[in-house]
Structure formats: C-alpha cells, structure tokens
Design goal:
The complex is a heterodimer of chains A (262) and B (306). Chain A is mainly alpha-helical and 262 residues long. In chain A, 73% of the residues lie in helices and 3% in strands. Helix content of chain B is 36%, strand content 26%. The chains are: A mainly alpha (262), B alpha/beta (306). The interface between A and B is medium-sized, with 23 and 32 residues.
Chain lengths: 262, 306
C-alpha cells in the first residue's frame, strides 16, 4: 500500500537538532576542511596557476585569478557539504546505524526524518560557507558587505544539492555505488560551472549544458556578490535553484518512502 | 479481564510482500496490564506483526486499533504512548548513553528538565548510570539491550513492545533483563514481547500465542496450553523397543519420536512412568514436567527453519 506523502510538521527540526548535537561534539574536526581547502586551492591555483594566467576578463573588467576562483571555491564548498551529507552520511545513518528505523517508532514520520536530513545538509553548507568566508577575507579578495549575500545562497544551494543527494540515497543499492553520481554529477559540475574559468571559454553547446547545472547558478550568484557587482541575471539563478529544490525535495521524499516502507 | 477495553485489537491482520504473505490474517487482542507473548520460529511473522503495530509497515489487509483508536488515522497520537524495542540494536552510535535517551525524549516532545529526570531514573533502574557517558560500542551486548529497553520507556508508554529483547545475551544478562521486565509488569505496564526462550515466556506472559508461517497456531495461558497439548508430564525413553510402541498404541497414549528418543506425553506421569521404567526401559528413561517448549516443538515441528 502506498500512502503517498504524509503530513509534514515542524518535527523535522528534531532531526536537525539530533544532527546538530552530533556535530557539536566534533565541531573541531568539522571545521578543518572549510578552513584548509580554500587555502590549499588559493595557493595552488591562485598563486601557482594564477601567475601563468594573469588576469581574467569578466563582465568587461579584468580581475586577478585568485579573486576569480574564490567564489568558485565557495560554490563548490556549498555543493559538496550538503551533497556528501545527504549521500554518504545519511546512507550510513539509514543503512548501517538503522537510526531512521529507531526514529520511526517515535511520533516522527519518514517525511519529517528525510526533510530534517536535507535541511541539515543545507545547514552544513551554510556553516562551512561562513567559515570559508572568514578565511577568504584574510586574502582580501572579497568585497563587503555584498559578500554576505553568499550566506543565503549557501542555504538555498545547500537545499538543492542536499535534496539531489537524498534522491541518490533513495535509489543506491550499496554505498560504493555513490562513486557513480560523484563521477557523473559532481565532478563535471566541479569543473564546468564557471568555477575555474569563465563559461564564455566554452563552445555554445557546452555552455548550454553548463546552464543546466545547479552549480553554475550558485556560481552566478556567488561571484557578483564576492566582487561587489550587482547584476540583473541573478534573479534567474535564484528561480532556477528554487525550482530545482521544489522538484528534488518531494522526489527525495518519494524515493526514500519507496525504499524504506514496504 | 475481558471487561476492559483492549490495548491492542487486531482483526484479520495481514502483511504481504509481493506474492509472499508474511502475516496471514491474524486476530488477537491484548488487555491492560497484561503481558502477552508472540512465540514462533524464525520467519513466523512476529517482527512483521510488530512493525505493523507502530506503523512501520502499512497493513495489506485487516484492521488494527490501539488504545481504541484506528491506527492508520491516529498513528502519531498512538505512537506517543508506545515504547518499542526493535529486534536490531539501533542505538545511535554517534551519541553517548545518556544522550541516546535525551535525544529520543525530544522526539516525544519531553521538555529538557523532564527528559533529564526521566533519563536519570531509567539509567538507575537499568544499572547503566556508571556508563552514562560511554559510547555505544563500549557497551556489552547486555548493556546495549538494556539501553534499548530504557530508551523505549523514555516516553512513559502505556504499551511496551519488545522484539526479542534477550536474544544473544549471556544467561546473567538475560536474567537481569527479565527481572527488570517483571518489575515493570508488576507496575501494571502492558507488555507485548517476542522471544525464543520458552521458560521465560512461560513465567512472564499471562497469555501468549504461537505463530508459524504467518498464522496463529494456538493462543492461551502458558499452563493451559501445556495442559491442553501435552498433559502434565513428559517421559523420555532412550532407544525405545517395539514392545513399548505397541503398548502405547494399545493404550492410546500420544508420543513422538525424536531421533533415538521417544517422548511420551501424559497427564498422569508417575503411574505410567513406573510401569514403563520397570517393563520397557533398557537404555534409560526419565520423567519430567511438561514445558512450553514441548508444546512449541509439538506444534511447529522439529525441522530447521533457516
Ligand atoms: N521487508 C520485507 N520484504 C520482504 N519479505 C520480508 C520483509 N520483512 C519480512 N519478510 C519476510 O517475512 C517473513 C516473516 O519475517 P519476520 O516477520 O521477520 O519473522 P520473525 O520475526 O517471526 O522471525 C520472513 O520470511 C521474512 O523473510
Ligand atoms: Mg523477528
């Protein structure tokens, strides 16, 4: 019997709280990647590669390579934090730790559990972004206060990627198979979303594909905010990410119900 | 007891997985203050039945009322008053012992002070207070199982459901847990449990049912079942001769062969035992009380299930 989507109440916040409690225990470890990653990338790409690349043309100006990739790094960080949270980490909780089974015997229902996981994934993106913003500020390549707009973008982008990750968790047979979406979904976006070079470098067809990637739209929002430029195209990126989430969140709930409730 | 409204009323409860029927139209009722046992070999459908009780498995057919309310439409309200100890140990390994209780309390909307007090009480009751800050993998099997039961009690439930609470524990841990359950029962808690330990089921359960292949074979009080299906005693005869078998056949006494042994079921053990041991016993024979295990094996057979 398929009962469809159950009513979702505020109780999904209980799952968020549970994950927060666990996170708070190990926060020191959780803070290391968002601190170290931008430094490593900026040293390798900004100083190393940037020396060869020089300045990059963007929106009619020329900007340093480090300043160009910094918002790309922030965007990748947004994608990875929520996506890895709702794939590998949620899968471990669901499959190995049977945490969801235990919670299903309490007043929460499955939809609340899954929504709580996705919102938690978005929160991880938000927190990691905040840490990374602080680190990048020391390099003097962020323009304030507009760079603060990256925080709500982190939550929205985290929601989109958290829900997409949860969709994969709903259909993946074993944890090793996550390699597939990482290779086919995350890696191409990592490289071809305007993160490390302007999309204008690509042929038209490739650019068209790139605009289908959610990461491209996160970059579209982060780069102007980081550089202190306001553009009109950004509203489309917000609409895209909202629509993407409005499809993937219900899809994730549906797939997880199909997976767990027989 | 039957004047009271039942805690659980299941009618024609059915669970199918594709073409396979795991629970095949069972009907039973459990009353307040009662301890009710589900017995049955592996695969009998005990866990599937329990999973329907807390809404984990939707019903394929039949109806289920808990606390007098239809489960399907009142699932959340009903779950506030049930405590469940699932068959798998699904404690949260990311949290400490105490945190496991506190986080669970939050799922039931207990406010912080009340949750703290309740956790303290349960850690005391189950002898886990010295381990309150330990991580789950540091606990022995018996401690983990006690913590799962403690967690199931965090919401002060009206109905406690335990799926094989003592399986895999050493005898000391098992007895300790059964002792705790007896105390809970004495306080009037309604308990539903599944177990493979017949002696303990016979002691604990007011009533029980034996299931096999998704159906209820029998239901009743342990002593009644023993009386009804076995009689009072069992005489075990090693390497029985043909004469004994003929004698039993002539007298119409029921018996069963188990490899080299013959089990004779009788209400009037002593007289028959004297007669058999004097006349027909060459290799060895013993008289003992009939047990629930005899009933179980008689009804479900001796073949392996897995
Ligand atoms: N989710 C499921 N999908 C398919 N078959 C299942 C599922 N859950 C249980 N079964 C089958 O239903 C039967 C009863 O299982 P279960 O209720 O776990 O029995 P018990 O707890 O008495 O050992 C078994 O044959 C089992 O394989
Ligand atoms: Mg079972």
């Amino acid at each position: 019997m398929k009962t469809g989507l159950q009513t979702i109440s505020w109780r999904f916040l209980r799952i968020w709280q549970r994950n927060w409690d666990v996170y708070a225990r190990t926060w020191r470890i959780n803070f290391i990647p968002p601190i170290l990653e931008p430094i490593l990338y900026l040293v390798a790409f900004g100083a190393g590669l940037g020396y060869l690349v020089g300045e990059i043309p963007w929106e009619g100006r020329r900007i340093g390579y480090a300043a160009f990739i910094a918002p790309g790094l922030l965007s990748i960080n947004i994608m990875q934090n929520s996506f890895f949270e709702t794939t590998y980490t949620s899968f471990v909780r669901m499959y190995y730790q049977k945490t969801f089974d235990a919670i299903l015997a309490t007043p929460l229902n499955l939809e609340e559990i899954i929504l709580g996981e996705i919102v938690w994934g978005a929160t991880r993106s938000l927190m990691a972004t905040a840490v990374m913003l602080v680190v990048l500020s020391f390099f003097g390549i962020l323009s304030y206060p507009s760079a603060l707009l990256i925080l709500p973008v982190a939550f929205l982008g985290g929601l989109a990627f958290g829900a997409a990750g949860m969709c994969f968790t709903g259909i993946i047979p074993t944890i090793e198979v996550f390699n597939l979406p990482v290779f086919l979904f995350v890696t191409p976006m990592f490289l071809f979303s305007g993160t490390f070079f302007p999309l204008e470098q690509l042929p038209f067809w490739a650019r068209a594909i790139a605009y289908g990637f959610p990461l491209t739209h996160i970059v579209e929002l982060c780069r102007p905010a980081a550089l202190g430029v306001y553009r009109s195209g950004q509203v489309w990126a917000v609409i895209y990410l909202s629509l993407f989430s409005m499809v993937t969140v219900p899809l994730a709930l549906f797939l997880m119900r199909r997976r767990l409730i027989h | 007891m039957t004047q009271l409204a039942p805690v659980i009323a299941a009618a024609n409860l059915t669970k199918r997985f594709g073409d396979f029927t795991a629970v095949d139209g069972i009907t039973f009722a459990i009353f307040p203050g009662e301890c009710f046992g589900f017995l049955g070999p592996n695969g009998a459908g005990k866990t599937s039945t329990i999973r329907m009780l807390y809404g984990f498995y939707p019903l394929s057919a039949g109806s289920l009322e808990i606390f007098g309310r239809d489960l399907h439409h009142n699932l959340r309200e009903v779950k506030y008053k049930i405590g469940v100890c699932q068959q798998d140990n699904n404690l949260d390994p990311d949290l400490s012992v105490r945190e496991n209780l506190l986080v669970f309390a939050r799922y039931f909307d207990l406010v912080r002070e009340k949750a703290e007090a309740r956790a303290q009480e349960l850690l005391d009751f189950f002898g886990l207070i010295h381990k309150q800050d330990a991580r789950i993998p540091e606990l022995s099997g018996g401690m983990q199982r006690r913590l799962v039961v403690a967690r199931a009690l965090i919401n002060d439930p009206t109905l406690l459901v335990l799926d094989e609470p003592t399986t895999g524990l050493d005898p000391q841990s098992r007895h300790q847990l059964w002792e705790k359950l007896r105390q809970l029962k004495a306080r009037g808690l309604c308990i539903l449990l599944t177990t493979h330990y017949m002696d303990e089921a016979a002691q604990m359960c007011d009533r029980l049912m034996i299931m096999d292949q998704g159906r209820i074979l029998v239901e009743g009080a342990p002593l009644d079942l023993i009386g009804r299906y076995i009689g009072g005693n069992v005489i075990e005869v090693e390497e029985p001769g043909g004469e004994l078998l003929e004698f039993l056949k002539g007298e119409g006494i029921s018996s069963e062969t188990e490899s080299t042994r013959l089990l004779i079921y009788t209400a009037d053990g002593e007289a028959l035992f004297r007669r058999i041991s004097q006349q027909y016993c060459s290799a060895g024979c013993t008289l003992r009380q009939a047990t629930l295990e005899d009933v179980f094996l008689k009804l479900t057979g001796r073949g392996l299930r897995e």
